[in-house]
Amino acid sequence: MSLIFATQLTAVATTVLAVFAIVTAVFAILAFRKQSKEVSDQASMLAIQSNQLTEQRRINEKQTTVLELQADELRVSLRQREREDAERHREQASRVFIQTMTGSDSRIPQTQPAIDGLTHEAVTARITNTSVQPIYDVIIGWRRGTAPWGEPDHVGVLMPNEAKELIRGLPVDLHPTVNRSLFGAVARFRDAFGARWLLRPNGQLDEEPLSGNDAPQAQASDVG
Fold it and tell me: Computed from CA positions of residues 180, 197, 211, 222, in that sequence, does the dihedral angle turn out positive or negative?
């Protein structure tokens, strides 16, 4: 092999290697650009997703605020409805009144004679139903302070706009220094809806628990 041929062959081989190197470099550059574009696309997608998450958080915060306001409004509405229901529940009972008075009264039974020819002292209880429906099982319970005083008086049914007055003489041996205002009366009754109430002369009205026999009695009384 001549020196010239060897030199030419070496030059050709070098050229081929150079071409391969250039082609490899081109493919490497193209692959790098593709990867760079994919990375850039992924970064753009992540940025979009981040913006979407941020916007969703803002929307969620607004929705949470709206839901909290709606919950507050619902609680207020429920409390208002409860107050209205309680007022309706007490409406008839709140139209019943009892008044008590203490003083001399000539209507006391003759079995309790006057002392020294004077008219005996007595407590008068007047219960009035100003509602548009009857009240039932009306009982006047006499009191000395907070303690029961003698047997109660049973009035029964009190019709609308009807009043009943009852009288009870004070003890004949009651010392003059005893405060007469300790003696009074309370009223117990059942309204037209079956609820039982305790009414005091100062206007205090308390609902009492129902007994097991109240429902049948309410139906019988209402029919009667």
Answer: positive
